Amino acid sequence: MGSIAKEIDAKELEKEFLPFLRMYKDGTVERLLGTPYVPPSPLDPETGVSSKDITISQDPSISARLYLPKLNQTHHKKLPILVYYHGGGFCIESAFSSDHHRFLNSLVAQGQVVAVSVEYRLVPEHFLPNAYEDCWAALQWVASHVKDDNVVNKEPWLMNHGDFSRVFLGGDSAGANIVHNMAMRAGVESLHDGVKLVGAFLTHPYFWGSKPVRSEASEGHDKALPCLLWSFVYPNAPGGIDNPMINPLGETGAPSLAVLGCSRVLVAVAEKDVLRDRGVYYYEELIKSKWEGEAELVQVEGEDHAFHVLNFETENAKTLIKRLASFLLK
Questions:
Q1: Nearest CA to 19 among 187, 217, 228, 174?
Q2: How far apart are CA 92 and CA 29, in angstroms?
Q3: DSSP one-letter string for 232-251
Q4: What percentage of the chain's residues is helix, strand, coil (to nearest 5)?
Q5: In 3-state terms, what secondary structure has residue 290?
Q6: Which of 131, 224, 263, 290 is deepest in the core (most CB within 10 A)?
Q7: Distance (Å, rounded) from C-alpha 43 to C-alpha 114?
């Protein structure tokens, strides 16, 4: 470890975005946050969930970790499909990281779904909108399994166990931002063979904008971490921090939430999360729009951002995961 640390120290720093990462002039990236990668498990001892890693696309490089709950041998009904997008500010974390793996094992066991946790390309190796394009490609790949004859990289877990009349999206933080943008796109563009999204859950969604909302401080608002992070991950975003992908409730240019391409939405927020008011505002505006679906808001007191993934063993985390599972089971 000592020699590696000296090697990093000797490198010339090009740029850093704390607390997330450092970039060096030789092209290497040092990620300062995030949990270690863990392998998939043929059978998780705690939940009975099986998982495996697959490649969706070689160019661009998109992969995923698939999850399958323990199946009742005498009951062969098809299971809902959850396409999941991990959080991490578009620049850290992974579908293969230990915290998301543990979280999804629990959610898949309780929600009785086949889950596809997407490994999209990260900043700074690949700036936005690459991640959005990867996540849409992954969603289209999942939808392509609805018919046997048009699947590239056919995946038996989806073919044999997936119910394509019950496809859900889910994500935390930046992943919840991706969920919103994929659902909006699905409301305008068709998924393969007319596959429709039933529902989407957004836990602690990463939204922001140039004007403070609710209790957000007006002083230093443009220097707040959510604002600086967006400038870092999508430096060429048209409209900057008011681009509809980060500010879906902006006054100019944001498409109506009425086109959201699913019939049920759950938004979860945490009391101590700096993004809390944005999530509540999103939920309220979704209800006010001409969107014809059913929306729910879950507020958890005393907790901070992504607590259900980062502090998995707490009672509040277990309660929220149970709530998400019931949303998938309904």
A1: 228
A2: 11
A3: HH-TT-TTGGGSTTT-TT-S
A4: 35, 20, 45
A5: coil
A6: 131
A7: 14
Place of tokens 């939204």: 207
**Strand pairing partners for 268?**
203, 298
Q: How far apart are CA 295 and CA 136, in angstroms?
A: 23
Q: In what order do the strands lie in the sheet with 264-270?
A: 50-57, 62-68, 114-119, 79-85, 162-172, 197-203, 264-270, 294-300
Q: Cα(160)–Cα(175) distance, rounded to whole angstroms?
A: 27
Spatial contact of 65 and 95, defined as CB atoms under 8 Å apart: yes
Distance CA 259, CA 233 (A): 26
Angle between helix axes 315-329 and 98-111 (nearest 10 degrees) is 50
Neighbours of 180 (CB within 10 A): 26
For the annotated catalytic residues, the residue numbers are 173, 273
pLDDT averaged per 10 residues, the chain (length 330)? 50 92 94 96 96 96 97 81 98 98 98 98 97 98 86 86 98 98 97 96 98 93 95 97 96 91 98 98 97 98 98 97 97
Question: Residue 214 region, left (φ>0) first, then alpha (ψ -120 to 50), else beta?
Answer: left
β-strands 21-24, 29-31: how paired? Answer: antiparallel
